[in-house]
Amino acid sequence: MSVRVVARIRPLLDKEADKDTIVRADSAEPGGPHTIVRIPNPRNEAEDFSFAFNSVYDQSTTQETLFTSEVAPHLKSLFQGFDVTIFAYGVTGTGKTHTMRGGLKLADRGVIPRLLSGVFRRGKKITKDSGGKTTVHVSLSYYEIYNDKVFDLLEPPENRSSLGLPLRAEANGKTVVAGLTERACVDLKDFEKMYIEANNNRVTAATKLNAHSSRSHAILRVKLTQVTGDMVRQSTASAIDLAGSEDNRRTDNGKERLVESAAINKSLFVLSQCIEAISRGDKRIPYRESKMTRILSLGQNNGITVMILNLAPLRSYHLDTLSSLNVSSRAKRIEVREIENEVVFKQVPKQGSHSLASGNAQRQPL
Ligand code: ADP
Ligand code: MG
């Protein structure tokens, strides 16, 4: 089982061009790769806080670079039968949806369409190389968790019960969402049609709720089935656009918001605890303690998890950014250090000193 926790700083948008940038990517050694995020101490701006990650991507990072560095390397494992889970975590407005979904233009496409494209390409190659003996099947589920209820995004909104879908424990101990649509998908065009339609559904359903999408977790599950004779190998890639991590209580204390906020805080807290436990190599992962981590069986199979912390460089996000940095770097067990200058700065642990990817050798082929 392996976990990577990486940060991505988004650029200033056109309308923010005159704003201050307070979040910076840095390296542990001059000329080294970016592994550190620096942000001023809000109580004393002469001082910086620094947070270390497996990797840090600055504002110039393209969608392609992020995918090539953090997701593409796991496609092979996915086809070997391991589950791959990619989370986008962060405050609303920091680029989670941009990172996962992205724009329609080819260069703007996010992790999800690129992942699907990679899956189809590799699947075709496997079938071809096996002389047609191995067939590869891809199916999709897409759902959201809102206030701890599960809603199927492949169903039109009018067919969704407001109670959400129930969970069911299977004989093998896994938890599944009962009645969740699973749709076969044959190529990238097929996927895009389904995905765009489902995202439109999500928006339509959300008009009654202000900014609903930032308060729900959207989970896309790609189920991969490889069949060779009577041998079947199954694995899942999950891509999750998490609810915004900001503290809603600070801006609005309406009752509905408080309920949402409590549900979001609980599930994000459990998620960070799971990631922390996995990175420590613990036997016990507290995945049963939230619906999201339970459905994902996070940490229950020898899979790969990548958590992308999205950051906006703006001063107006200062406190929320700090709190999201605290949560994710705790997930990676790296201490926050106050630093005043470059000399102290060198004491920040380097990437590799908290190796998280050591569990690969334990993976068993199916
Ligand atoms: P979130 O899903 O975290 O609320 P969004 O993905 O909607 O945030 O991003 C907020 C805004 O910033 C959007 O207009 C988005 O297009 C833009 N944005 C985010 N990340 C980038 C990036 N890396 N490059 C260019 N624009 C970005
Ligand atoms: Mg979003």
From TrEMBL:
<dbReference type="GO" id="GO:0051231">
    <property type="term" value="P:spindle elongation"/>
</dbReference>
<dbReference type="GO" id="GO:0005875">
    <property type="term" value="C:microtubule associated complex"/>
</dbReference>
<dbReference type="GO" id="GO:0003777">
    <property type="term" value="F:microtubule motor activity"/>
</dbReference>
<dbReference type="GO" id="GO:0005524">
    <property type="term" value="F:ATP binding"/>
</dbReference>
<feature type="domain" description="Kinesin motor">
    <location>
        <begin position="2"/>
        <end position="334"/>
    </location>
</feature>
<keyword id="KW-0175">Coiled coil</keyword>
<feature type="binding site">
    <location>
        <begin position="90"/>
        <end position="97"/>
    </location>
    <ligand>
        <name>ATP</name>
    </ligand>
</feature>
<keyword id="KW-0963">Cytoplasm</keyword>
<dbReference type="GO" id="GO:0008017">
    <property type="term" value="F:microtubule binding"/>
</dbReference>
<keyword id="KW-0505">Motor protein</keyword>
<dbReference type="GO" id="GO:0005737">
    <property type="term" value="C:cytoplasm"/>
</dbReference>
<keyword id="KW-0067">ATP-binding</keyword>
<dbReference type="GO" id="GO:0007018">
    <property type="term" value="P:microtubule-based movement"/>
</dbReference>
<keyword id="KW-0547">Nucleotide-binding</keyword>
<dbReference type="GO" id="GO:0007052">
    <property type="term" value="P:mitotic spindle organization"/>
</dbReference>
<comment type="similarity">
    <text>Belongs to the TRAFAC class myosin-kinesin ATPase superfamily. Kinesin family.</text>
</comment>
<protein>
    <submittedName>
        <fullName>Kinesin-like protein-like protein</fullName>
    </submittedName>
</protein>
